[in-house]
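Researcher: Excuse me, tokens okay?
***
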Amino acid sequence: MKGKLYLIPVLLGGDDFRALIPEKVITITGGLRFFIVERIRSARRYLRLIDKEFPIDSTTFFELNEHTEQEEIDHFLDPAIKGSDIGIMSEAGLPALADPGSGIVAMAHRHGIRVVPLSGPSSVVMALISSGLNGQHFSFNGYLPVKKEERAAKLKELEKRAQEGFAQIFIETPYRNNIMLESILSACKNETRLCIAADVTLPVESITTRTILEWKKGKMPFLNNRRVVFVLQ
């Protein structure tokens, strides 16, 4: 019998895990001894948060990020192939969403390993449903281009889709959030609506939807070093 691949949700920040992670998910996570993670240090900290007695020293971690060689990745699911359950977790929220874990999930399907998604917070979904924008027709675009001209062109493209009735969701690296907002206000039309969802689920959470013109008239929010999801329509 092959093991299962569990998609493990983690907090979007803070440490109030009992308010956001279901008890069943905590129990399943605490019973695993193999994990695929973005950063081992963060994963260990989270596991000790949900269980102070978690046996870190007898747990195997596989690190999956931009530095991981494909030759290593090819063996990450070996424990599941041999019969052990394995969990995959992102740095925040749900794995495989704007996250390298999607490749592991695809590999699990190829190997006939059962994939089990577990419920938990997702900043992308929570931003959309609280934006007041179209929750029936939408697209998640991940990260937009870094170069200014390419980013502006992409924003105009997304705005066109948004005007056709499809809410457009995207994110940015935290230290570039304010640059992204400046680009949005410059590239988009005044009547276009923009939701800025910052630090979702945290005590400092703020979720606001305004037209571009209203954002321009108000005080520019400081978004750098915050986890932000942008929704445009």
Remarks:
- The chain has a mean pLDDT of 95.
- Residues 63 and 101 are 11 Å apart (CA to CA).
- The domain at 123-232 is CATH 3.30.950.10 (Methyltransferase, Cobalt-precorrin-4 Transmethylase; Domain 2).
